Amino acid sequence: MAEDKNPIQVAGRLFSALEYLADHGQTGLTELAANIQLNKSTAHRVVASLEYMGYVRQNPENGKYEPTFKLADLANRIMERVDIIQTIRPHLQKLMEMCGETVHLVKREGAEVVYIDKVESYGNNVRMVSYVGKRMPFYRSAVGKALAANMTEEEVRALWDRSAIERTTPYTITNYEDFLEALDDVRHKGYALDNEENEQGVRCIAVALDISGDNKTYAFSISVPVSRMDNDRIKKFSGYLNEVREEIDTELSRG
Q1: Distant-in-sequence, close-in-space partners of 75: CB < 8 Å, separation ≥ 6
Q2: Is residue 152 packed enough to be buried (19+ CB in 10 Å), middle (13-18) or exposed (0-12)?
Q3: 136-148 residue pLDDT tens
Q4: Residue 217 half-sphere exposure, CB side, CA atoms within 13 Å?
Q5: 140 or 75: whose pLDDT is higher?
Q6: Taking Cα atoms as reference points, which of 224, 234, 217 lies closest to residue 116?
Q7: 58 neighbors 65 (Cβ within 8 angstroms)
Q8: Which long-range contacts (CB under 8 A, 24 or more apart) does 89-95 make?
């Protein structure tokens, strides 16, 4: 069909199908077609193309489609080429060992932060649901606040206006003036805190990195179930974060 020759449309269909399968796992053709808003024959051509390229497989037992690990392999190869991750990872590993909790590295992209690395604590049986590639709005994360605290009010306002402000927990900050007060608190204390604002039951503490004079792009954090993150631990972990930040900033400035 002529419409299928549109490269943007074709790519959009391929990625829509792949993203749906990645989110939902094994899916029948009828369900997939309905959810990506294609007729069944067109959806079949899409998954057949993905299957041919090795990104999707069809389960021979139930006929349903699911993503393969080829995309994960591709993502890993991309991430391995990102020098900053390779440089920072030993420091994140050290931080995890210091605090015994899960550590994340993020990069800001527009009004969102994206997890680009994660060091899971092997000493705790409670696992964080975060994953590399996950996105979240800057305004309800500790890392986002840490980055925003280094911006002008005009920059913060622009990001706030680009965000769909919504209350995901009873503690989410949804008022702009309250958010500005939270940023003042970050500047005063030297660290940012997500006090169950993004995910109920989880506290995160974060600082921004100053890479070549840019302290608005990368940040890292410690994420802890609220049951073991009291004020004393917050104070202790803030010291760990700032110690490791200085080490990272020193190494990157030499590079």
Answers
A1: 132, 133
A2: exposed
A3: 999 999 999 999 9
A4: 6
A5: 140
A6: 217
A7: yes
A8: 89/117, 89/119, 91/244, 91/247, 91/248, 91/251, 92/117, 92/119, 92/220, 92/244, 93/119, 94/244, 95/119, 95/220, 95/222, 95/240, 95/241, 95/244
Burial (0-12, 13-18, 19+ Cβ within 10 Å), 203? buried
CA 138 to chain centre: 10
Stated as kind and residue range, the H or E segment containing 59 is none
Closest CA to 138 of 120, 162, 154: 162
| Range of lowest pLDDT (69-73, 129-133, 217-221) | 129-133
| Section 185-200 average pLDDT | 94
Question: What are the φ and ψ backbone dihedral angles of 123, each rounded to 5 degrees?
Answer: -100, -5
Under 8 Å between Cβ of 105 and 56? no
Give the whole-angstrom CA distance, residue 95 versus residue 100. Answer: 8
135-137: strand order across its sheet: 135-137, 112-119, 102-109, 218-225, 202-208, 192-195
- Transcribe 127-182 into DSSP letters: PP---TT-EEEGGGSHHHHHHHTTS-HHHHHHHHHHS----SSTT----HHHHHHH
Contact, 139 vs 165, CB < 8 A?
A: yes
Distance spanning both ends of the chain, measured CA to CA: 53
Task: Work out whether strand 135-137 and strand 192-195 pair parallel, antiparallel, or are unpaired.
Answer: unpaired
Spacing of C-alpha 15 from chain mean position: 19
0.85 surpassed by pTM:
no
Are 198 and 85 contacting, i.e. CB atoms less than 8 angstroms apart?
no
H or E, element range at 213 = none
Contact, 85 vs 105, CB < 8 A?
yes
